[in-house]
Amino acid sequence: MLTAHNRWEVLKTDSSSSQNILFSAKKSHVIQLGTKLQVFLANNVQEQICDFRVEGSWTESSCVIYAGESSTIIAQMHKKRSVGSVLLGKDKFMVTVYPHVDYAFIVALIVILAEIN
């Protein structure tokens, strides 16, 4: 769900109650080259340091997802280019998710990134 404050909120049910928020994501800066998202888990109410960050280039169809402000990569995505994707417009993505990382969480971040771009 996109909020009025240009923030994406991921909920565990259809209710928009703040009790159902799993995490939220927002652009690091209003104007930016490439895409940088800050991701905050629901229990991070101060939002002084993000829990995860996504850095990518939609023109290159790739992104890297990091744990917080560290250099620890938890997932990577890039668009798989093929004749079918060019001619038929059917995009395919290759996603590498590192051990002990929730696949659904990574997919949700990629969907948000795609919607932003």
UniProtKB/TrEMBL annotation:
Coiled-coil regions listed in the entry: none
Pfam families referenced in this protein's UniProt entry, alphabetically: LOR
SUPFAM superfamilies: Tubby C-terminal domain-like (SSF54518)
UniProt xrefs under InterPro entries: LOR (IPR007612), LOR_sf (IPR038595), Tubby-like_C (IPR025659)
Similarity-based family: Belongs to the LOR family.
Protein name from the UniProt record: Protein LURP-one-related like
Organism: Actinidia chinensis var. chinensis
